[in-house]
Amino acid sequence: MSDAKATGDAGKGGGKGSDEGVNPEKDLSATNLPGQRGDQGEEIRVQRGMFGADNGGDTSGYGGLVRSIRLPGPSSRPYGGWFDEVADELEGALEEQGLLPENAIDRTVVDRGELTFHIEREHLVRVARTLRDDPALRFELCTGVSGVHYPGDKGRELHAVYHLRSITHNRLIRLEVSAPDADPHIPSLVSVYPTNDWHEREAYDFFGIVFDGHPALTRIMMPDDWQGFPQRKDYPLGGIPVEYKGAQIPAPDQRRSYS
Amino acid sequence: MSTHTPSSTAGTRETTEGTVYTVTGGDWDEVVESAAKADDERIVVNMGPQHPSTHGVLRLILEIEGETVTEARCGIGYLHTGIEKNLEYRTWTQGTTFVTRMDYLTPFFNETAYCLAVEKLLGIEDQVPDRASVIRVLLMELNRLSSHLVCVATGGMELGSTTIMIYGFRDRELVLDVFELITGLRMNHAYIRPGGLAQDLPPGAVDQIRELVKKMRKNLTEYDKLATGNPIFKGRMQDIGYLDLAGCMALGATGPILRSAGLPHDLRKAQPYCGYETYDFDVPTADTCDSYGRFLIRLEEMRQSLRIIEQCLDRLAPGPVMVGDKKIAWPAQLALGPDGLGNSLDHIKTIMGTSMEALIHHFKLVTEGFRVPPGQAYAAVESPKGELGVHVVSDGGTRPFRVHFRDPSFTNLQTMAAMCEGGQVADVIVAVASIDPVMGGVDR
């Protein structure tokens, strides 16, 4: 993703006053923009303009501003503290099962004192079972799954985030699995952590992530006949347009905002 | 009956009132037919969602044979209000006013968990002033009292003991009076904010809390006298709602349910936050795995909370209650005016009259909010019901990209089937009461 950032054209075309805005892949190097993490990290979106309005409502002059939104990227060893121990044990245990760790673990991220393993979805169940059963790992308690929708993260739009707690060793780690919008399938962890039953139903209900192998994947919060998945970012908020002196106030996701 | 072929999704039909969706399952017709053919005594009882003993809009679907429950399922979602989605369209600070409404019996826990997560994202955990942390602990422990009191009170009422109910709500009222004095509201406070607190304790608060502790010490013994040794109470509670340690771990149950199985797991001890490691208190457990054990644990936890509250009062030292970073700290100085709580006139005089920059800064911070660096964080607190976890994701903007609450009520309610199947119908009520689900937290 990051190789798309051209390096030679830094500073060319400030963007202000330009009609079409600026093509970030061509005209700007990311490093000279405010609030950038440089090439590091994982780009999830490119934001244009300043006020979040993409229907021409931005008359502020900042319409040409381009920012790439980056989440913390993969970390390299040592991770620090007990993180290395957990990573070693997990990699060792996976190797024992004849699974190359680099095939199962896409990347390892250490950020804000938290350890995250990005797991390839086809290996999720085995990794979770290993984390639960290996005596050196023993993550007995799963605190459920949280879905996140990154529409700009092409090819891996839907993320399922699991937090596993080890009471034996008093540790907490995070697993993250992604699936594309076009194929929203992630294997279910109910066979390993039965507590995920309702949590996966909730993530299905709100994000449309299909958890393969779940015993009864039905809606849990929304009515059974609801159409669409409300917590996806592209789900229209609708709402009733409020009319004031002939003008209509749009739904919150259509309004100008600072984000 | 519709004639089109059954599909897994809802079929539509236009009527004068608009589009009507008809849910058709793949094998629903077969299920109905076979149920009609069967000649056993099986009865399906639908309890709730409007039923006084199901703790809010909880729907229980019980399959019974005689008095025995053979299958129990929950129907939830009747109180779903889309709080998590709403948060994505408010600033980080406004988020507290939403999360406080999730589990409405534990507002301070929701707020603290959310703020701890936001502070982790901002990287300002170390800058939160001591006084703010002490007051957070103080309020959380007061809140633990009021939440457990509701649990004990409603649980007693469902057993037919209205005296316990009266006692519980009487004592909860004392706690809510303190909340009202401190935050101005009995519930839904939005008092704890990212970076600290909305404002300092008002004059007289410490004295009133000391008074409350004294009164509560006396009142808590009444529950022991009335219920703990009561043979009827014990007969209804003992060995009911049984869930052992293996069941708790598999189903993710935390809080009093887990501790009633004998595991002293408490995040205040295991993963301390807000300085809990510096307080002196015990984690009560029971080894009965039943409703009675959970009742005893809740009573003892209330006594431990009183201990913590006293320690908080003793260590309250004057100081700021908000981080020093003016890019995060809410600039307003609140004061009570003739028309209620609002910005203090002095503050308005300063920003309007003397400093244009302060006015701009105030305006920007209040309308736009502060930016939070991209990333994700998980913060968990030990709420009265168990592990309350918050997963927040930021994309660098002034609003949360995603906030997910792992509410303990939601997870614990899954244990209902394991606790009730094979038991009597009347015991379902006791088991559900011992789970202490609050539908505001379950459905969010």
From TrEMBL, chain A:
Function: NDH-1 shuttles electrons from NADH, via FMN and iron-sulfur (Fe-S) centers, to quinones in the respiratory chain. The immediate electron acceptor for the enzyme in this species is believed to be a menaquinone. Couples the redox reaction to proton translocation (for every two electrons transferred, four hydrogen ions are translocated across the cytoplasmic membrane), and thus conserves the redox energy in a proton gradient.
Stored SUPFAM superfamilies: Nqo5-like (SSF143243)
UniProt protein name: NADH-quinone oxidoreductase subunit C
Annotated family: Belongs to the complex I 30 kDa subunit family.
Ranges for domain NADH:ubiquinone oxidoreductase 30kDa subunit: 118-239
EC number, UniProt record: 7.1.1.-
Topology versus the membrane: Peripheral membrane protein
Catalytic activity: a quinone + NADH + 5 H(+)(in) = a quinol + NAD(+) + 4 H(+)(out)
One Pfam family in the UniProt entry: Complex1_30kDa
Subunit structure: NDH-1 is composed of 14 different subunits. Subunits NuoB, C, D, E, F, and G constitute the peripheral sector of the complex.
GO cellular component, one term: plasma membrane
GO MF: NADH dehydrogenase (quinone) (non-electrogenic) activity; NADH dehydrogenase (ubiquinone) activity; quinone binding
Region (Disordered): 1-41
Biased composition (Basic and acidic residues): 17-28
Keyword list, A-Z: Cell membrane, Membrane, NAD, Quinone, Translocase, Transport
Domain of life where this protein originates: Bacteria
Annotated localization: Cell membrane
Automatic annotation (TrEMBL), chain B:
Gene3D superfamilies assigned to the protein according to its UniProt record, in alphabetical order: Cytochrome-c3 Hydrogenase, chain B
Keyword Translocase: yes
Gene Ontology CC terms, in alphabetical order: plasma membrane
Top EC category: translocase
Catalytic activity annotation: a quinone + NADH + 5 H(+)(in) = a quinol + NAD(+) + 4 H(+)(out)
Similarity-based family: Belongs to the complex I 49 kDa subunit family.
Any one Pfam family match given in the protein's UniProt record, by short name: Complex1_49kDa
SUPFAM superfamilies: HydB/Nqo4-like (SSF56762)
InterPro entries for the chain: NADH_Q_OxRdtase_suD, NADH_UbQ_OxRdtase_49kDa_CS, NDH1_su_D/H, NiFe-Hase_large
Gene encoding the protein: nuoD2
Subunit composition and interactions: NDH-1 is composed of 14 different subunits. Subunits NuoB, C, D, E, F, and G constitute the peripheral sector of the complex.
Glycoprotein as UniProt keyword: no
Gene source species: Streptomyces ruber
Domain NADH-quinone oxidoreductase subunit D, chain residue ranges per copy: 159-444
PANTHER family: NADH DEHYDROGENASE [UBIQUINONE] IRON-SULFUR PROTEIN 2, MITOCHONDRIAL, NADH-UBIQUINONE OXIDOREDUCTASE 49 KDA SUBUNIT
UniProt subcellular location: Cell membrane
Functional summary from the UniProt entry: NDH-1 shuttles electrons from NADH, via FMN and iron-sulfur (Fe-S) centers, to quinones in the respiratory chain. The immediate electron acceptor for the enzyme in this species is believed to be a menaquinone. Couples the redox reaction to proton translocation (for every two electrons transferred, four hydrogen ions are translocated across the cytoplasmic membrane), and thus conserves the redox energy in a proton gradient.
Topology of the protein relative to the lipid bilayer: Peripheral membrane protein
UniProt-recorded name of the protein: NADH-quinone oxidoreductase subunit D
Coiled-coil positions: none
EC number: 7.1.1.-
Keywords: Cell membrane, Membrane, NAD, Quinone, Translocase, Transport
GO molecular function, one term: NAD binding
Biological classification of the source: Bacteria, Bacillati, Actinomycetota, Actinomycetes, Kitasatosporales
